[in-house]
C-alpha cells in the first residue's frame, strides 16, 4: 500500500487513477477536501476496495500517526497543498498552515513511523514530496533553465511556502536519514484541473462567452507538461530515485501565456465553433498579478539521464486531448464552477468519508 495525500485534487486524482490502472497495489488517500478537493474526480473508483479514502488534514498528527500504524504503507506521496498563486497573494495564511506546518507534521509522523519499521522495510520506505519549479524564482529571457543546483528564490507566498516545505524535506533526510525524494515540476495541464488555473479557465470562459483574462502583456513564459507525464515521472522517481535527491520535471515546452490562450482558442474554434465568431475575440488584457514571475524554464535532463523518464506527450497532442476532455466533460466543469460538486460530495461520498 502507498499513502497519497491530496489525492482528490488535480494532479493527485490523475496519479491515483493512473496508479490503479497500472497495478493493484492499494492506495490510502488522505485529503482534506478543501475547495480544490473534489471526490467526483475519483468517481470511477467508488466501491473499488483498492482505494481507501479518508477525509482529513496532513497537519493532523493524531490522524496521520494512526493511519500509518494501521495501514503500514511502503511509501508516502505528498501532493496535498494550497496550490494557486493568486489565492496566496490574497490570503497567504492557509498556504503557511498546509504547505509549511502541515508538511512538517506529515514529515515528522512519517519519521516516527519509519524508525519503527523492521530494517528491510525501513530501507525500502520512501517519502516523495511533490513540488514546483516556482521555488527557483524568475528567469530573464536568455537565462539557462533551472537545474537541481539553481538556488531557491521564491517570489510569491505560494512559492515561498513550497520552498519552505522542500527545505524541511531535505533536512529530514540530512538530519534523520529519512529516505525522501523531491520532485520540482513545471506547469501541469490536463483533465480535472480546477478552473481557476489558466487553461481550464480559458475553456470555461470561452464556452460561456466571457472575457479571457490575460495578465499584463501576456508575455510571461511557463513550461507546460501534460499531467499524465508528471504522474509517470513521479512513479519513476518513487521506484528508481535515489533517496535524498531532487528531480526536476518539465515538458521542454516553454510558451508565453498569450500563445497558450491563442492555441486553446484555435482548438475551440475547430471543435466547438461559435456562431458569434472566433474565440480569440474574447481575449482581454487585465491588470497584472502582483510580483508576477516573468519566466520559468526547466532543465529535465537529470531525470532523463538517471531514471530514463521523458514526456510522452508533445504540447500539440496534450493540449488537443485536454480541450477535448473539457468539452466532453462540461458537466464536471459546471459542477466545479457552480460549487455543486460540494453537494455531490455530501450525497455520494459521506458514507465512505471518516473524519
Ligand atoms: P490542487 O489544488 O488541485 O489539489 C490539492 C489537493 O490537496 C486538494 O484535493 C485539497 O483538498 C488537498 N489539500 C489541501 N490542503 C490539505 C491538507 N491540509 N490536508 C490534506 N489535503 C489537503 O493542486 P494540484 O495542482 O493538484 O497540485 C498538487 C501538488 O503538486 C501541490 O503540492 C502543488 O504544489 C504541486 N505542483 C502543482 C503544479 C501544477 O501545475 N498544478 C505544478 C508543480 C507542482
Ligand atoms: O486568468 C489568468 N490569466 C493569466 O494571464 C490566470 C489564472 C493566469 N494567467 C497567467 C499567470 C501565469 O503566468 O497564466 C500563467 C499560468 O497561471 P496559473 O494557471 O495560475 O499557474 P501558475 O501561477 O504559473 O502556477 C501553476 O504552475 C506551477 C500552479 O498553479 C502551481 O501550483 C504550480 O506550482
TrEMBL record:
Reaction equation(s) it catalyzes: dTDP-alpha-D-glucose = dTDP-4-dehydro-6-deoxy-alpha-D-glucose + H2O
Entry cofactors: NAD(+)
Domain NAD(P)-binding positions: 3-322
InterPro entries in alphabetical order: dTDP_Gluc_deHydtase, NAD(P)-bd_dom, NAD(P)-bd_dom_sf, Sc_DH/Rdtase_CS
GO BP annotations listed: nucleotide-sugar metabolic process
GO molecular function: dTDP-glucose 4,6-dehydratase activity
PROSITE patterns hit by this protein: ADH_SHORT (PS00061)
E.C. no: 4.2.1.46
Superkingdom to which the source organism belongs: Bacteria
UniProt keyword annotations, A-Z: Lyase, NAD
Signal peptide extent: none
One Pfam family, short name: GDP_Man_Dehyd
UniProt record similarity statement: Belongs to the NAD(P)-dependent epimerase/dehydratase family. dTDP-glucose dehydratase subfamily.
Protein name: dTDP-glucose 4,6-dehydratase
Record organism: Thiobacillus denitrificans (strain ATCC 25259 / T1)
